[in-house]
Amino acid sequence: MPGISLSRRRFLQSTAGAFATHFATQPLSSGAAENYDSYLEGRLYKTLKIGMVKVDGSLTDKFKAAKAAGFHGIEMNSPGMNVAETNRAIAASGLPVDGTVCSSHWNIRHTSPDPQQRATALEHLKQAIIDTEAVGGNTVLLVVGKGEDGPEAEIGPRSIENISKALPLAAELGMQIAVENVWNKFLYDHDGDSNQTADKLVNYIDQFNSPWVGMQFDIGNHWKYGSMGGWIRQLGKRIVKLDLKGFSRKQDKFTNIGDGDLDWADVRKALAEIKYTGWAAAEVAGGGPDRLREISMNMDKVFGLSGEH
Questions:
Q1: 3-class DSSP assignment, residue 6
Q2: Residue 166 included in any domain
Q3: Which of 73, 81, 108, 247 has an alpha carbon within 20 to 30 A of 263's alpha carbon?
């Protein structure tokens, strides 16, 4: 945040990370297990992607609209973010930037067989880390690549080797690289059934052997392929942030948050069991003030939040 010294910012980030890790690894008490539906109240904070805010005016106007709709933070895109303008919007609106999305990750990939493309992907990731720290966030969402870049046995190690080159910078600045589970035909069977597990994702994250790599777990992206509550339980402390959208297996399509047939009750229970605390980012079609408020209220509903914390 503007006005916070670098040393203090790092202290706050490291303390928050230690706090979240501590709770993620503690067993859920019997009392909390009985009241899992209310567990997330006061422990979960709503954010959204900047591209969802369809409001005319300046970046500050967009930040103010997101805050008025009930969001506690916002995610920017980098490379490409104007750091100075973003810091002005934070200061004027009182809405923090909790993290960024690496803006080029779909087209410039860490799984690419082209060494030059991987080198560019690394530079973009490093820039996103630098930009995120500069605006007070602490995560960079990353899609690591696409299955079309080669066999899993090749692109897994290839991407891990490339991304790992950014870890010294991430550690220096206190930034977490948050890998998102997406429909990229990697670490799951895209043509498989709905009984798949998170085994491959767990193994992938663990191979980094670093506290600076975790998951921005998208609730909705893989309901088509497995139990989201089950995947949350498997991933456990590896989850550093959440993304969310709805999905209907019956209709085989993404939906608004809370629509479709995703088992949100089990999701809430699983998040309570791993003692998750932190950010949850909406990733659905955005709009103006009314639509943003609708999204915020949908998030409150599926997470059992009052909307007042």
A1: helix
A2: yes
A3: 73
8 Å CB contact between 143 and 104: no
Indicate which CATH number applies to the domain containing 162.
Answer: 3.20.20.150
Q: Is 174 helix (H, G, I), strand (E, B) or coil?
A: coil
pLDDT in the model for residue 19: 36
Using CA atoms, how far apart are residues 112 and 91, in angstroms rounded to an integer? 39
pLDDT of residue 32 exceeding 70, the answer is: no
Instruction: Say what the pLDDT of residue 21 is.
Output: 41
CA distance 286 to 48: 9
What are 260's strand-pairing partners? 247
Residue 184 lies in a domain: yes
1 in a domain, yes or no?
A: no
pTM for this model (two decimals): 0.89
- Residue 24, pLDDT > 90, answer no
What percentage of the chain reaches a pLDDT higher than 90?
Answer: 86
279, β-bridge pairs:
45
Residue 309 lies in a domain: no
The distance from CA 160 to its chain's CA centroid, rounded to whole angstroms, is: 19
Residue that the structure tokens 């066999």 belong to: 151
Residue 2 pLDDT > 60, yes or no?
no
Task: For residue 288, give its domain range.
Answer: 6-303
How would DSSP label each residue in 230-258? HHHHHHGGGEEEEEE-EEETTTTEEESTT
Backbone angles phi, psi at 152, to 5 degrees: -55, -35
Q: If DSSP states are collapsed to H, E and C, what string results for 93-159? A: HCCCEEEEEECCCCCCCCCCCCHHHHHHHHHHHHHHHHHHHHCCCCEEEECCCCHHHCCHHHHHHHH
What does the CA dihedral 86, 87, 89, 95 come to, rounded to 10 degrees? 110
Q: Tell me the average pLDDT of the chain.
A: 91
